[in-house]
Write a structure and sequence with these properties.
The protein is an alpha+beta fold and 137 residues long. 33% of the residues lie in helices and 14% in strands. It has 5 helices and 5 strands. The strands form 2 sheets. The protein has a 3-stranded mixed beta sheet, with no helix packed on it. A hairpin with a 7-residue loop joins β1 and β2. α1 crosses α3 and α2 crosses α3. The protein is flat.
Length: 137
């Protein structure tokens, strides 16, 4: 693997992501990091995010809404996506490794892991009564 030189911008981007729990888009991270690096380009943010994903230091999440989101938590865990406000949250439940073993029974190959995302209406949208107006995904 090619050794990458240290980048203050990359480290700042990684730190910014690590203190957030909202699974931000590249655009949201760009807006945040511009406070520290006003001349940084959106292209630099995308390149560094993709490099961090490639290095396994962050995750890229795609939920079918067109905007990739990023997560500093790389250990196996589950997400919940609100179909009303599109908020992405970590579910505070343990990783269910037994799903891999169950799936293995139905697949002639080696099941190594799984990714599961739950969809529905978050508590805030439910309390606001927004659920009937939301489009189903």
């Amino acid at each position: 693997m090619k050794i990458r030189k240290y980048s203050r911008q990359r480290e700042s981007l990684k730190h910014c992501l690590s203190i957030r729990c909202d699974h931000p888009t590249a655009d949201a991270l760009y807006a945040s990091i511009r406070e520290e690096f006003p001349n940084i380009s959106l292209g630099t943010v995308y390149r560094n995010l993709n490099l961090l994903v490639e290095l396994g230091e962050i995750q890229k999440l795609s939920f079918g809404d067109g905007a990739d989101r990023f997560d500093a938590r790389v250990s196996p865990h589950y997400h919940f996506v609100c179909r009303c406000c599109h908020q992405v949250s970590d579910l505070p439940m343990g990783h269910l490794a037994e799903i891999d073993h169950l799936a293995q029974r139905y697949y002639d190959g080696k099941v190594e892991s799984h990714a599961t995302t739950f969809y529905g209406v978050c508590g805030d949208c439910t309390r606001k009564g927004a659920a009937p107006a939301c489009k189903k995904q």
